[in-house]
Write a structure and sequence with these properties.
Elements (H helix, E strand, L loop, with lengths): L6 H10 L3 E5 L3 H14 L3 E5 L1 H7 L1 H14 L5 E8 L2 H10 L3 E4 L6 H17 L3 E6 L3 E4 L2 E3 L9 H11 L3 E4 L4 E2 L12 H10 L5 E3 L7 H9 L12 H7 L4 E6 L1 H17 L7 H23 L6
Parallel strand pairs: 1-2, 1-11, 2-3, 3-4, 4-5, 5-8, 6-9, 8-10, 10-11
Antiparallel strand pairs: 6-7
Length: 310
Amino acid sequence: MPLVTTKEMFRKAYEGKYAIGAFNVNNMEIIQGIVEAAKEAKAPLILQVSAGARQYANSNYLIKLVEAALLDAPELDIALHLDHGDSFEICKQCIDDGFTSVMIDGSHLPYEENIALTKQVVDYAHSKGVTVEAELGRLAGVEDAVNVSAEDATYTNPDQALDFVTRTGCDSLAVAIGTSHGAYKFKGEPKLDIPRLQRIQELLPGFPIVLHGASSVVPEFVEMNNEYGGEIPGARGVPEELIKEATKYGVCKVNIDSDLRLAMTGVIRKELHNNPGNFDPRKYLGPARTAIKEMVKHKIYNVLGNNDKL
């Protein structure tokens, strides 16, 4: 089964009012855990690669691991997505390497420059049958190559979103409505600007919206990390009921990364603490892989609602 684009995935998700999980991948165990969960849940899946992942693992290794996943799970619909590409050259390289979806993130640029860059990527990607995600508005937070202060974060303007999509021809749009990157998303009461999202959907009916920074930062795994030597006090994510609410208003793709990191690292810390004489990576990476699988299944069944959608 070859990789698929996100176009048909998103059409079905929009009509069904559910979302597709887009999970960041960095190594074999993470990919295996995600894919095993999707197999059991019969869920379409987006595996996405960030700038940090490309630097850490090398795109060639990650692409081959995803190809192995296709051999292991030929029944799955899997898209391979570039997360936060910041230049035409990076997007072109990933398209030429076989990615079926790319994100061009020009949100740091002036509005007209963002449009011009996005349109350039769209024209090339569409000529190769690849879909394009763009971003309008800026999310606060830190994750891999993305580092935006709260002062620089701006919510997406709905009227501008309509103009942006019309002029660029992008296939989906990441919007800023209150989520943020990393594990420290909220200091006060967590909330998302759902009315803003509703207005964007009204202006762009049928158009897929993307939520970045949508990890819920599950307290169980924050506590596990801290109990076994970690230092991540005060971590707080997006309540899962808010993500579920957003899927009713055009959100078809939900990015999840921090929750996977917390689950994997928490279990590794616990395993090494409880078995200090162990030096076999398989004996702590194996349980960590299982933690990834269970986290992804939880998201699919309880947050995204895309189980049994193949």
